[in-house]
Amino acid sequence: MLLVTPFDPSNITAISSAIRDNQSLGFNPSDDGRVVRVPVPALTEERRHQLVKQVSEKVEEARIAMRNIRQDALKDAKRMKDNKELSEDDLKRVEKEIDGLMSKMQTQIDRGV
Asked: Any coiled-coil ranges, and where (predicted)?
């Protein structure tokens, strides 16, 4: 059981409805005007599989976002080179730095950080 005690009791209904409206959580909170009680059911095998699937989808979304960010950064760097704002050596250094950052972030995603 989770017990949520808001600083401002006027937010009780908003908190309760926000938890209830998020169907992916699968919780049915109740409130008594001062606190919100959220019963957490025991994990079943089916629920574990659902959670693994949701996490896998979020990981894939993060990978897609990272690829898009990388492409945008490389385009910006090439545009800057074309505008003579960067030299060829600077472009290669920036590309290497972008790839290093992407590798670091990919490792963090794989570790689950």
From this structure: 52-111
